[in-house]
Here is the input.
Amino acid sequence: MTGGTGRLGQRLIGPLQEAGHSVRQMSRRGTGPGGVRGDLATGFDLATALAGAEVVVHAASDRGDAWQVDVAGTRRLVEALDRDRLRHLLYVSIVGVDRIPYGYYRAKFAAEQVLLASGLPVTLLRVTQFHHLVDVLLDGARRGPVLPVPMGWRVQPVDVGEVAQHVVDVVGRPPTGGVVEYGGPEDLSAADLARAWAVARAPGTHVVATPLPGKLGAAFRDGAAVPTGGERGRRTYGQHLHG
Ligand SMILES: NC(=O)c1ccc[n+]([C@@H]2O[C@H](COP(=O)([O-])OP(=O)(O)OC[C@H]3O[C@@H](n4cnc5c(N)ncnc54)[C@H](OP(=O)(O)O)[C@@H]3O)[C@@H](O)[C@H]2O)c1
Here is the structure.
């Protein structure tokens, strides 16, 4: 697994072991159970980290350096893998990377193309925003007692533990050679989420839905971040807030 110290990666180790995998997980820090060091940005120790891997869950990412880590790093990963041993490589991507004009998403889409062109047995699992990320974004958007949110944006956030379990399920099946989607149980507006968050985390905050012009806003309003197929998690954002 790559990204074993990440928010998703940390939740993957236990379920992968329970499914019978012997887990080695790689990150720059290399901490945690079965942790080894490897750097996708430089290629440092990648071949050692990947030696003998039959299944790879690629969950490392760096939003601040995505072209180097996610795109070039995925190319380095492909080159460092033992092609003869590999049975399945699952890449964790994001719903809408093909439609939403946002720099980080463009890099994720480019990383998908690297994998599709690699000839390896891959599955590209596009998932929606984790509940925690929604919390962080809303907290960051608050300006005193006012919380502005983009009007009409549709999102379908998901529980990270359910994503981890789904990753384990999907990687245990034959590779699809293409995209699979996964999201939470509810298609919600950003304002719905913000109101629920405000009640639970910042009482007295006023949510103000504001029109956001441009192609990015149009894509979110059009539902580009909402999955059209695949399975769904069960845990709602409300349960996350109050759980
Ligand atoms: N967060 C969300 O809401 C969300 C939604 C949909 C999809 N996803 C996708 O799910 C995946 C996991 O997301 P996350 O939120 O769990 O990420 P995260 O918490 O930011 O963790 C990123 C992981 O990547 C590792 N990493 C970063 N740069 C690296 C490098 N140069 N070489 C090797 N490892 C490196 C980090 O470890 P070190 O710092 O120790 O290197 C860390 O383990 C990502 O691909 C993301 O795009 C996330």
Notes: Residues 7-242 form a domain with the Rossmann fold fold (CATH 3.40.50.720). Residues 2-9, 27-29, 38-41, 59-62, 69, 92, 94, 108, 127, 129-130, 133 surround NAP (CB under 6 Å). The CA atoms of residues 181 and 230 lie 5 Å apart. The mean pLDDT is 97.
